[in-house]
Amino acid sequence: MSTTWLPCGDYHQNYTQDHAWFQTKFIKSKMLALMIILFVVLPLISDSYLLSVWNMVGFTILGALGVQLLIGFCGQLTLGHAAFIAVGAYTSTLLILEFPWPQFLIDWGIAYPISIIAAAIVAGIWSVLFGLPSARVKGFYLILTTMAAQFITVDFVLTQYVSQIGGRGQAFSLPPGTIKYGPWVIDTELKTYFMMIVLVLLCTILMANLLRSRVGRAWVAIRDNDISAEVMGINVVKYKLLAFFAAGFLGGIAGSYWISTLAAISPEHFPWFLSLWLVGVILIGGVGSIHGAIFGSIFMVVVMEALQLAIMPLADTFPKLLIDFLFIKEAAFGLAICVFLIYEPNGLAYRWWQIKNYFNLWPFSY
Amino acid sequence: MKSKLLVILSVMFILAGFCSLAGAADIKLGSLNDMTGATSDVGKDYALGIGEAIHYINDTGGINGKQIKLYQFDYGYRIPEALTKYNLFKRLKCIAVLGWGTGDTEALAPTVARDKMPYVSASYSGHLGNPGKTPYNLFFAPDYSTQARGLIQAWYDNVWKKNKDFGKRNPRLAFAYHIAVPFANASVPAGKDQAKILGFDVGPDQNVTLFAIDTKSQILALKDFKADVVYHSNTVMSVAATLRDAYALQLGADHLIQNWGTDENLIKIAGPAAEGAYGCAPWAFFGQDAKLMDKVVEYAKKYNPGVPLEDRTIHTQQAYASALGMAEAMRRADKAGALTGEGILRKGFETMSNYEIGLGMSPVTYTAKDHRPMSLVPVYQVVGGKFIAFAEVDMKKMYPDEWANKWIGW
């Protein structure tokens, strides 16, 4: 078999070949090119505004990966993911501000990286608590129980109790220099960008690996038919809760990342709309695909920002266009979901898959 | 073919977007407003006022002959949206920003300090008044904490001292506000501190969201506490809902309302329930006799003829105060040859000493050590369906030591 191109058809002879990350030299080169674009080209050509847009894309991807895992791969509908992102953000912030770190850990810049892992674990455990009802309910009813996560977590626990720690009131701000990796203080858009790229890559690899394991196959089986999955010997409750843990874990990382972008948080940063937005992201990107979470995030952030910039020259003639743009954006968000559900229900990821297949199978793409 | 053309046009449109830069205006100014979010009940009028004020400034000579180009965006009271808009302002080479809410202004404070971007907010959070912590944040009003202290002081001096129970028991005060929202809770610690100074008994906080339309359970809790006075720090819609329920359930307490709940709509929405309520209004109400008010009305008619004048509110004047204050700082910096972020702060704002904006406002003073622009709290009372001047409390004069040493940055 060629090591450069895959033949037209599937000639894998074992699972190792089937699940290999880089199956051909071409794929390796493609990934290398992508890394060069992400780590060299984009930072070089982007000003602070564009970097902030990429950072927002990264935050959306980190948030959407968890939602994709729950909805797209395990079939557990959720509208409470913002709560787990909030738990991650607050855990990380409180650990940095309040935990009695030994001075050498602070000096070596290890406190924040540790706080990210701790935040992910705490958010994962918190997510499992709200995943417990999934043992008894599903579909529409599960949506309502996950929505409860938002109100209990953000409006009650974080606002009334957690925010009061340290006597700061609701708004926590992190003093300059406290968010750092080793010697690198994260204090510019560029540094935040590099941190985002590394986190997104790690989380994407983590999730992709999970999905090609026994656990991932169990999730997909539960999504496709939970009764059949149970008949096949899958412990449905255990794997559902594991999915909630993994989704919360990813949400916790998203929350920890978020504090680096502003060095401040309050419960207002995590409205219920954020959960809805993330579901919209995976609907547009494609449900049941990691690419879907990424494409959906790019579409929802970059396209909307570009539209705004594109109308800017018209603002001299129609000054109300700028101030009314949020109306346009909200309408575009709703319209995009409708259009995708009707005309491209498999989302942008499916379109990407078709394009790839066209080239892979060329000249016999019919 | 058609779909290909559509794809090509869309891509060109998007590329044009990312390549687009601002036009050739002299001075670029960004403005973040809330027209659709949690505080849009007061944000719409403020946004209209900002646009009209910039027209007025440009028509009257601009910044020493240079015109201001305004980039005004609705961010829907969403912090991620505020963050990207702020970065967009930097890309557009805006040299200063007119901001909005407490959550986003406080969240952006470290960033604007790093970027040396003067940021005049419609948030008057006391946290923003200490240049040692937030050097590039400014505002044109008594800060929320001073408002809370002033309202409580005015009520204590002018109402409680005349009460038959004065000297026999402590007055009972409770706070009704959206606990999760930094704007609403910003003044509460200062209010409670003032209550402690004056010997109030403070009841349990009542969580009234900014979207509240039914607050009966909170009112029943206030009845249990037998509150003499309730302090409200939400925006007007939820304050009106609370007053209506308090009236319906015969709470029998007085009401003290921070500036964002004190506007013409309060009387329209709450009706008789607003009667007797006390509010802080550091600017003239719309159409009231005050310096520059004729221009405010003229520009409202000229640039937003679709909005009836009777629907305009005090928030227009608030917006004028922010915009005119910013323009004056820019003029001073420009004259000093330092029209940069740092120049606008040091040669502009921080040179203002008893600067008179008009519109019924107290004079404004900024120093390098204190960004609280004023200490006078004008208190109005609703009498016969109108706001009538009730009292003025100067917190700096009344508590000089605390003002100078303790209260900055609360």
**SSE pattern of chain B, N- to C-terminal:** HEHEHEHEEHEHHEEHEHEHEHHHEEHH
Order of helices and strands of chain A: HHHHHHHEEEHHHHEHHHHH
Strand content of chain B: 5-15%
How much strand content do the residues of chain A show? under 5%
Architecture of the largest domain in chain B, CATH level 2? 3-Layer(aba) Sandwich
What is the total tally of β strands of chain B? 13
Number of domains of chain B: 2
The neighbouring-strand order within the major sheet of chain A is 1-4
What does this structure look like?
- The complex is a heterodimer of chains A (366) and B (410).
- Chain A has 366 residues and is an all-alpha fold.
- Chain A has a domain at 45-272.
- Chain A has 16 helices and four strands.
- Chain A has helices at 15-18, 25-45, 48-73, 81-98, 103-107, 111-131, 140-161, 189-211, 214-224, 226-231, 236-262, 272-285, 290-311, 320-323, 325-343, 347-360; strands at residues 172-173, 180-181, 184-185, 264-265.
- In chain A, the strands form two sheets. In chain A, strands 1-4 form a two-stranded antiparallel sheet.
- In chain A, β2 and β3 form a beta hairpin.
- Chain A is globular and about 65 Å long.
- The two termini of chain A are 23 Å apart.
- The model of chain A has no long low-confidence stretch (mean pLDDT 89).
- Chain B has 410 residues and is α/β, with parallel strands linked by helices.
- Chain B has two domains: 20-141 and 286-374, Rossmann fold (3-Layer(aba) Sandwich), CATH 3.40.50.2300; 145-281 and 377-406, 3-Layer(aba) Sandwich (Rossmann fold), CATH 3.40.50.2300.
- In chain B, 43% of the residues lie in helices and 14% in strands.
- Chain B is built from 15 helices and 13 strands.
- In chain B, the strands form two sheets. In chain B, strands 6, 7, 8, 9, 10, 11, 12 and 13 form an eight-stranded mixed sheet that branches. A five-stranded parallel sheet of chain B has the order 2-1-3-4-5, with helices on both faces.
- In chain B, α2 crosses α11 (293-303), α2 (40-59) packs across α12 (314-335) and α9 runs parallel beside α10.
- The relative contact order of chain B is 0.14.
- Chains A and B meet through α3, α7, β4, α13 and α15 of A and α1, β2, α3 and α4 of B.
